[in-house]
Design brief:
- The complex is a heterodimer of chains A (about 110) and B (about 120).
- With about 110 residues, chain A is mostly beta strands.
- Chain A is about 0% helix and about 55% strand.
- In chain A, the strands form three sheets. In chain A, strands 2, 5, 6, 10, 11 and 12 form a six-stranded mixed β-sheet that branches.
- In chain A, strand 7 (about 55-60) and strand 8 form a beta hairpin.
- Chain B has strands spanning about 5, 10-15, 20-25, 30-40, 40-50, 55, 65, 75-80, 85-95, 105, 110-115.
- In chain B, a hairpin with a 2-residue loop joins strand 5 and strand 6 (about 55).
- Classes of the chains: A mainly beta (about 110), B mainly beta (about 120).
- At the A-B interface, strand 5, strand 6, strand 10 and strand 11 of A face strand 4 and strand 5 of B.
């Protein structure tokens, strides 16, 4: 079946630190991959996406590369800000269905 | 303003009392879906709809019903709620052609407690 596994949180970083949140997936075919972000009290918002192998998604300084050989889609940011504090979800879409990871809470301290 | 609106936002109910959570979108999206969010489990898809009168099960459909009589509305029905359906529920929508790009638009969520 299809599933997404992402690293447990919370992750606590100081401002300007480097961020990596690991995500691996299992899929029966060739899914599209995404990172969503959820701010407190809000619904999820699409952060970035990659629709085929070796694609790199990027947005707001965040990046993730679709690695088919390692079935991974790790999220990275070179310098986090306090405003990046949120819950991050890795997800895949395959044939009209979406599968989300369990979410990783990021706390960024000034 | 483009949005997905869910109601109610908060609800406390008792076991067995039928309830409906409404979802409405004003973007003329074909695709709509429901999710539940539980600690440690992330979001799990309950049902989705590709268009009017076309619905299909997601990963966790047991105990839920949906209908899609109009393009803008996709209500989630709990015929006989049980405490294990206590959760945070999200509705989301998308253009059909954008499903593979993951461009889901989410509502703000409905927190349901079943006693």
């Amino acid at each position: 079946g299809n599933s997404v596994t992402q690293m447990e949180g919370p992750v606590t970083l100081s401002e300007e630190a480097f961020l990596t949140i690991n995500c691996t997936y299992t899929a029966t075919g060739y899914p599209s991959l995404f990172w969503y972000v959820q701010y407190p009290g809000e619904g999820l918002q699409l952060l970035l996406k990659a629709t085929k192998a070796d694609d790199k998604g990027s947005n707001k300084g965040f990046e993730a590369t679709y690695r088919k050989e390692t079935t991974s889609f790790h999220l990275e940011k070179g310098s986090v800000q306090v405003s990046d504090s949120a819950v991050y979800f890795c997800a895949l879409a395959y044939f009209n269905k979406f599968y989300f990871g369990s979410g990783t809470k990021l706390n960024v301290k000034p | 303003e483009a949005q997905v609106t869910q109601n109610p936002r908060y609800l406390i109910t008792v076991t067995g009392k039928k309830l409906t959570v409404t979802c409405s979108q004003n973007m003329n999206h074909e695709y709509m879906s429901w999710y539940r969010q539980d600690p440690g489990l992330g979001l799990r898809q309950i049902y989705y709809s590709m268009n009017v009168e076309v619905t299909d099960k997601g990963d966790v459909p047991e105990g839920y019903k949906v209908s899609r009589k109009e393009k803008r509305n996709f209500p989630l029905i709990l015929e006989s709620p049980s405490p294990n359906q206590t959760s945070l529920y999200f509705c989301a929508s998308s253009f059909r052609g954008a499903i593979g790009t993951g461009e889901l638009f989410f509502g703000e969520g409905s927190r349901l407690t079943v006693l």
